[in-house]
Each structure stands twice: as structure tokens, then as C-alpha cells.
Amino acid sequence: MTSSNSSNSLSSTFYLAGIPGYEEFHHWISIPFCLLYCVGIMGNCAILHIVRTDPRLHEPMYYFLAMLSLTDMGMSMPTMISLFRVLWSISREIQFNVCIVQMFFIHTFSFTESSVLLAMALDRYVAICHPLRYASILTPRLIIKIGTAALLRSAFPVIPLMVRLTYFPFCRSHILSHSYCLHQDMIRLACADIRFNVIYGLVFITVLWGMDSVGIFVSYVFILRSVLSIASREGRLKALNTCASHICAVLILYVLMIGLSMVHRFAKHSSPLIHIFMAHIYLVIPPVLNPIIYSVKTKQIRQRILHLFLPPKH
Fold first, then answer.
1. Could you identify which of 87, 95, 138, 184 might form a hypothetical disulfide with 26, taking C-beta atoms 3.0 to 4.6 angstroms apart as the criterion?
2. Tens of pLDDT along 211-227?
């Protein structure tokens, strides 16, 4: 019976939702989404290219920035194809196995982004509090280990949720609430006991994001204590300025994350447009804004971006 349910689930077809009530404007609505995705992809690809090709940027801070760009793209790109298939009226259908894969990448890279921001906070802590030991502490080997640990730490806990979904029968509506697959959306349609998925998911999110946010907070407590001990005002401002981009990236992710959680928790009966809008903003805005923030606030990145897109005339 269990294998039959699993087989039925894996062969099921689900239907993605667009913008309810605005179906006739889907083609027009796709234009700003297309622009945002293009800006995000171009910006993050530019960051990756610059960090890879400029030897002056082969430092821990920029390696972590490259990780953030990869994570941003990994979080937003799995939604892109299914979103435009819906908005361009190509197809609303998505197979269950494709849905599971998409869901895995979205949730994994969403958690990885938080872990990468924690790693970047630790990078700033070492750079400001232990500047003379910066290169000896954050060696390339350690950076690779941190990046691998951040990815595995986010991916492995997601697997049990995905595996459990394959054994759920879906005897209710197969219409999803978004134009891509989310775990909380899928379990709502399952005709089974979903308590494990709900409790496990809540504990996993609380522990992972809780640990990351506490780690970031503690890092900045030590950073501020070190900065306040600097005698000159210019020195304090220079030290804090190196953290400005990272603080903005943290605020973008956590403000959007908290906003999305508040909508799901306290606005369950509000207009579906609010839920759809917040879900898309959460996945699209960080990949768009993070390269812009680092390009504006980081001199080396800004100069290379300008040189890349506006090459000097000879």
C-alpha cells in the first residue's frame, strides 16, 4: 500500500498558480520579473567573474562574496522556468518528481544563504579583531571546508522532508498556491498525517536560522567592542565601513524572511496576492540587491564592475 501511494505521488501532476484574478495581464506582469531575474543573474555572474579573474580579489572576503552569489543564484533560478511557463501561458503543469527537486534546491539554498552570511560575519570578526592573523586563520583550505559545511548543513536536513513527501497520498486538489513548489504548500494538499513534517520543519528552521542569527549577532558584539577601542574616529569609521555591505545583506534576508513568516502566521485569510507577492520578493530581491550593494559599498568590486561594463577607451 505504501509503495502504491509513493508511486501515485511520484507520477502525479500538480498545477502551479499565477497571479489570481490577473490572468489576462500575466504577459505584462512577466516583464518586471524578467528584468529582475536578468539583473540578478548578470550581477551575480559579474561578481563571480571578477573574483575569479582578478588576483587582487583572491582573499577570504571575496571568496565568501562569491559563495553568496552562487547561493543567491541557486535560490532564485529554480523558480525562474516554472514562473515564466505560467506567466507566458506555456503550461501550469509540473510533475511531482520535478516539484520535489525544485523544492529541494529552493529550501537548501535558502538555508545556505543564512549560513554563508554567518561565515561572512566571522570573516569580518577575524579581519577586525585579529587583523595580523587574518590570512593565517582563514586559509583557502578552511574557506573550502566552511563553504562545503554550509551547503551540507543545509541540504541533509531537508532530505527527510522530501522523502516523506514521496510517501504521501494527494487525494485533494493538486493546485498549488505559487508558481513554484514549496514544502509548506505541498503538505497542505496531502491526505496523511503531516505532523512529523510540520514539527520537524519548524524545529529545523528554528535551530538553523536561530544559530545563524545568534552567531552573526555575537560576531558583531565582538566587532563593535574592538572598533570602539580604536583611538581615531577615522579608524573606527573605516573599520565599520568594511562591514556595511554585509550588514545590508543580513538585513535584506532576515527582514524578508521575518516578513514572509509573519504573513504565513498572521495573515492566513488575507488576499492570496499578499502571500504570492511576499514569496516572490523573498526569492528574487536578495539576488538582485546583494551584487548592487557590494558594488556600491566595496571599492575594489565597484572599480572592476565599471571596468567590466564600461571598458576604458584607448
1. 87
2. 999 999 999 999 999 88
